[in-house]
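Backbones bend. To wit:
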Amino acid sequence: MPDFLKDYFTDLSEGLFSTLNTPDAYFNKIALTTIAIVIAALLYLALKKLITRNEADFKKRLKSQKVLKSSIMVLAILFVLFIWIQAINALILIALLIGVFLAFMVRGLTTNITAYFVIKYWKYFEISNRIEINGIIGDVIDITPINVKLLEVRGGLSSDANTGRVIKLPNSIIFDESLEIVGGKNSFVWHELQYVLSFDSDWQAAEKLITEAGETYFEEQVLHQLKKNIRHLSEEQEALRPVFSVDTNDAGIVLTLRYLVDYQHATRVKTELQRKVLPQLTDHANIEFAILEVKVFRG
């Protein structure tokens, strides 16, 4: 610690101890402190009542009351400092506290601005990209020097639809959390359709119906978009086609279709595939969906 700060705090401590060793001054300062606290409390209650009476909007009223409480607390603390410490010492102490606060704020601001340039000029992600960070999924709608604004996706919904909520995240979060990005050069992701049939169902017929629906979707909606993004598509086309798999569990035979979809249209595409596949499965005489039975035993 610099010598001038050591001298300042030494003089400050000596001043406080000398005050405590002077009973009259000590009791006077206690009385003034008590009066200041009482006045501050009464002033807060009176102004809070005034705000409650004149502000009908709950959010604005709550915000105004918080600002009022913080302001009165700061004023009361400053007044008490002037009571117990010499005026010049109080001003120096206040200046030091403000300096520490500003240094902390500037540090956070600097980190956010640095992260902003990383995002913008290193193409970390761009507007319209979908990102997942710290368990939050959303489409990027704005990037400012301070924060990133996301239009939340899913958030408790079963589909990949926007919830309508806008989430603000500090830019510096990219330095602290892992980040998954969708929608850069390639906006396609893998999704799945899954059906569980009874064990006596004709699962081969179901496989044919599901595979045909997947292949038709791939040829009509995916292939021409992939040609725009992938130069040597012929070499990769087979790996990008829908994949069908069969498995079993306690309920029945599990049929899964894995397919590529543009993340911005995932819910619409899934609904279209379901509308095409479900009627064919339900109309087939040898295909039945599995029914999960729950047995309850009473002792």
